[in-house]
Amino acid sequence: MGDRPTEPPIDCNLCPRLVKFRQHNKEKDPDWHNAPVPAFGTMDCTLLIVGLAPGLKGANRTGRPFTGDYAGDLLYPTLLKFGWAKGAYKQAKNDAIKLQKCRVTNAVRCVPPENKPIGAEQASCREFLADEIAALPSLKTILALGRIAHTAVVKALGLKLSIYPFTHGAKQNLPNGMILTDSYHCSRYNVNTGRLTSEMFEAVLRKIS
Fold first, then answer.
1. Which strand (E) or helix (H) includes residue 14?
2. 163 band by pLDDT with thresholds 50, 70 and 90
3. Domain 16-208 architecture
4. Rounded CA separation 131/129 (Å)
5. What pLDDT, in 10s, does the model give residues 104-162?
6. Angle between helices 198-208 and 70-81 (to 10 degrees)
């Protein structure tokens, strides 16, 4: 543990469907990132937040997880409120926000069509998440945003979903001494439908803080 985690290469070709979608987006919007999105945050983090995948007009555009889309408008202000970040979030990779003892990544590093990665894509990208978790020497808590992120974490650690099911607000002790905490994803859909409110999300972060 402690070595810098392996990130997928800029031209990663593990998932043919995602490669094709990336190329399509690059032709349409050549100034966007349009590549695997690396993790954001410090290597000495105690908290790792795992999301689903880059948003088409968010991280796929800006090159930073949860940056420039609706989910980031809830995630980053909440991290600022609870001391996991400092500065200001302005929906851009070059804004002034800095994470403190916190790191943000995704279960799938490339933007998927309709924000829905298929099973093979989730499995192919899992090696990067496993490597990332292993490389963070001070990591204590993993916050999974949504069922796909939760599944990615559990499987990356070689554990069984039947023993560690997804439940919003749950805190589960893992065999490696870490804690897995779950929240519904802070997506526009979940917020607009009331499945997740800012108060609910803050309650999850409050348990971690």
1. none
2. very high
3. 3-Layer(aba) Sandwich (3.40)
4. 5
5. 999 999 999 999 999 999 999 999 999 999 999 999 999 999 999 999 999 999 999 99
6. 40
Alpha carbon separation from 28 to 16, 64, 110, 113, 208 (Å, rounded): 19, 20, 16, 14, 41
Eight-class DSSP state of 137: T
Query: What is the bridge-based pairing of β-strands 141-145 and 179-183?
Result: parallel
Q: What is the DSSP letter of 174?
A: -
Exposed, middle or buried, 165 (CB in 10 Å: 0-12/13-18/19+)?
middle
Q: Considering only CA atoms, give the Rg of the chain.
A: 16
Residue 171's φ and ψ, nearest 5 degrees, are -125, 120
Say how far apart CA 155 and CA 205 lie, in whole Å. Answer: 23
Strand partners, 182: 144
Cα end-to-end span (Å), the chain: 24
Alpha-carbon gap, residue 23 to 114, rounded angstroms: 16
Is the Cα torsion angle 76, 208, 185, 111 positive or negative in sign? positive
Within a 10 A sphere around the Cβ of 37, how many other Cβ atoms?
29
Distance (Å, whole) CA 29 – CA 149? 28
- Alpha carbon distance 95, 90 (integer Å): 6
Is residue 19 within 8 Å of residue 9, measured between CB atoms? no
Domain ranges of the chain: 16-208
How much is the pTM?
0.96
